[in-house]
Design brief:
Radius of gyration: 17 Å
Oligomer: single chain
Number of strands: 6
Strand content: 5-15%
Amino acid sequence: MPKTDWNPLLRDQFDQPYWNELQAFVADERRTHTVYPPPDDVFAALHLTSYADTRAVILGQDPYHGPQQAHGLCFSVRPGVRVPPSLVNVHKELHDDLGLTIPDHGNLEAWARNGVLLLNTTLTVRAGEAASHQKHGWETFTDHVIGIVGAKPEPVVFILWGNSARRKRELIDSRHIVIESAHPSPLSAHNGFFGSKPFSRANAALVAAGREPIDWNLDGSGRM
């Protein structure tokens, strides 16, 4: 459970029946299967990006389900882990949009530390089985997180890639900025993700709202 400024905002969820059932389910899964990410990384997004600092949200779906990939931030992998295809396309769009150097790693911690909440809507997954932990309660929790961010008085940019993320738009108050497109997966990136310029659009919206833009540079951040 997060021990940052999110804790008082989320504490009421920890007494809900769904939460106890969810934690029992995940504990049982860990006893009988390999589950990603490791327990200490499940809430990494909330540990690295405080509620107060959240200026943008990128929504993913499941954690990566391959060995050593998932570490609690959507789309991100640790340094030394092969960059997954969707993230390769994110890097390409980042370069095309802002002219930034494509990094030699897939670690997005620099974004998380700079106010980008990298939230998956399901926070655990069984190894090798995509979607295996969906509809067991994580979505109730992460919808609550989205709602809390949506209640912030200052504008926040929500970046929604793909149909799963775009369905969360109904949780987002109209005073916030929503940037949506196809998913960066190789199966869909050419159907509207490439050329969507999410990074420059996010910064333009933040500046227009009187907020600090995001430093999207990832060059060297994998060595943090």
